[in-house]
Amino acid sequence: MTTPFGGPARTAPGLPNLPTPPTGWPVGSYATYEEAQRAVDHLADSDFPVRDVTIVGVDLMLVERVIGRLTWGRVLASGAASGAWFGLFVGLLLSLVSQGGSSFGPILLGLGFGLVFGLIFAAVTYGLSRGRRDFQSVSQLVAGRYDVLCQPRNAEKARELLAKLAMSGGPA
């Protein structure tokens, strides 16, 4: 089997190669991924066969958090900075292969051209948006809850261990 990019698929032995729904019995339900992870870590610390365990995010949501307003100044500064970094990289590569002369010439030339092209590209892109999206955001996929499933052969033992964890003040 190969990946879409042509390389060999790297799946663990015994795991399905195609997307499949999770199987197993619910042994715990948690409000955050951190709590579910802590529960599975507790099972692992208790020498439980964690290969039988799956964490499943339920009620998935795409959350987009707005982190700031876009202005022409921010757009141009960001474009200039990213262009300058790329130009610096190209300039460094050119300085490595250039023969004789100063090695700072190609670096400064790449930096300058990168800065200008980054500035122009950012201005054109932002100008074409015509104010339809004047904010920056970060997207994240989150779940409403996280269920811990276990294969039936060990589900009761997992429930007992997680009940002890909950009684000791761990995740409920």
Automatic annotation (TrEMBL):
Residue numbers spanned by region Disordered: 1-23
Keywords for the protein's UniProt record, in alphabetical order: Membrane, Transmembrane, Transmembrane helix
Domain General stress protein 17M-like: 27-96
Segments crossing the lipid bilayer: 75-97, 103-128
InterPro entries reported for this sequence: GSP17M-like_dom (IPR025889)
Pfam families: YflT
Name of the molecule in the record: General stress protein 17M-like domain-containing protein
Record organism: Pseudonocardia cypriaca
